[in-house]
Prior knowledge:
Elements (H helix, E strand, L loop, with lengths): L8 H5 L7 E6 L5 E7 L2 H6 L4 H6 L2 H9 L2 E6 L3 H15 L14 E6 L6 E5 L8 E7 L2 H15 L2 E2 L7 H5 L14 H15 L7 H13 L3 H18 L10 H4 L7 H12 L7 E8 L7 E8 L2 E2 L5 E4 L9 H28 L15 H11 L9 E5 L2 H13 L7 E5 L4 E3 L7 E2 L5 H35 L6 H11 L2 H6 L2 H5 L6 H14 L2
Parallel strand pairs: 5-7, 8-12, 12-13
Antiparallel strand pairs: 1-2, 1-3, 4-5, 4-6, 8-9, 9-10, 9-11, 13-14, 14-15
Helix pairs in contact: 6-10, 9-10, 12-16, 13-14, 13-15
Amino acid sequence: MSSPPKADLKARLQEVPHKPGVYLMRDRFNRVIYVGKARILRKRLTQYFVASKVTRADPKTRALIEAIWDFDWHVVASEPEALLLEGKLIKEYRPRYNVSFRDDKRFLLLKVGLNEEWPRFRLTRLKGVDDGCRYYGPFADSGALRQTLTFMRRKFGVLTFGRGNPSERELKSSTYQVPMKLADTTPEQYRERVETACEFLDGKSKDLFAPLEEEMKAAAGRLDFERAAELRNMLDDLKQTTKPMHRYTQTMRHRLKLPGAIDPEADLIRLGEELGLQGPPHCMECFDVSNISTTHVVASMVCFVDGRPSTHLYRRYRIKSVEGRQDDFASMAEVVRRRYSRVLSEARVAAKLADAGGEVDYSGEFSQEAPADAIKRAAGRSAFATRLPDLIIVDGGRGQLNMACRELQRLGLHEQPIIGLAKEFEEIYRPSHTQPLILSHDSGALKMLQRIRDEAHRWANGYHQLLMKRRVGESVLDDCPGISDTRKQALLRRFGSVTRIRRASVEDIASVSGVGIKLAQTLVDYLQRSGK
């Protein structure tokens, strides 16, 4: 049985989103050898391929990592969903490196026998087929489920556990006197209670949480913090149990076997339709600004072609117009202006080269050609011409979008498709619309935008961290005897970083202007002692 070529795992990591989900590790024969869950998929998967962590791992983990040939993942809405899906997949594939969930234990379900005269809510681990019962779950947190049952018993007066008609003890119990004694209730009236409880489990009665929240606040106001904490925990359990969750079904198997459970072509088609574009945005460029501190304000531009990262087209920028302050709007304007000013310049040069047979006259002639037309003409005549993207995405809301649009208009790119993606509520802002577009969180179009936005954020933060690391390293030179600021800048211009200076010989360092052999030896000795 021949094995497929090993995937470029580190490159695949760039496609993984910063979302909760489940991942499947596969060996050279495409067999699933491990299933895991993660709160942040990319962060968790990256840990498998960090050399320092691999060397410290136990023998079993090292064996697993060596056997990994490829991996898939599936994004879910929350950690409880990830736990449920992980258990299902482990039971289905029975991976050799998994231990948990390989037994016959299943998550709890909530069952209500609607075919009974007095339906009861009972816990079960097996789901019947055509048994006239309604099932809820599975539930990852059994404690939260039991707390919910207690609430339903007191709030709706429904029977839990046991079987058959209510016993004498249950008929007299004060627990079931809502709104009247169970003994005075007919089976038809009791079924109304059951339907109300079922609606609550379906998440249709969230207004019931308001009295509990008011009671919790009142308890806190009376300094009865124990009661307030008890109500807070109950609210958390109820919200967790009644929260809508995606259920794993057998129809998802084919999706999990696809790389990343992603269909870029379908997502692009859907995105083009949602935004009203002329077609799928095959080339997209996304901008993000990172200003964690005012020391280094940077920006990133990432490019996706046909729904996948094209890392050779990524760009990083150090913001020059914003110093000593944080101004996302001005920073976004600068990076958009610099990016597309260069695109226009390169396109015009390419068009002139093609027209002149390889020679360009720079005698001061100014072209009256529209920028977008120049780019199209250059793209048609030169295989190496820069093209405008089908869609520009800026990380931010209306403010960032307006600044980017202003710069595009100044450059003459009036018809360029552009949107802003606000992170908090995933709202899509468009230049010609007053209200943001809100897509379903399950929409492939939104997931595509999230993937490119998250990648731009990662690329910007990585550049910011790199510059901060360099700055810390460069500060080592400030304490070296005889190294003035002028000599420091000369050394960094020559070698690029302190790390490269450490690797250089005394003779190479001495060849830098203003640094003699004696000072070069002093610097080498100092860097060795510093150990930084």
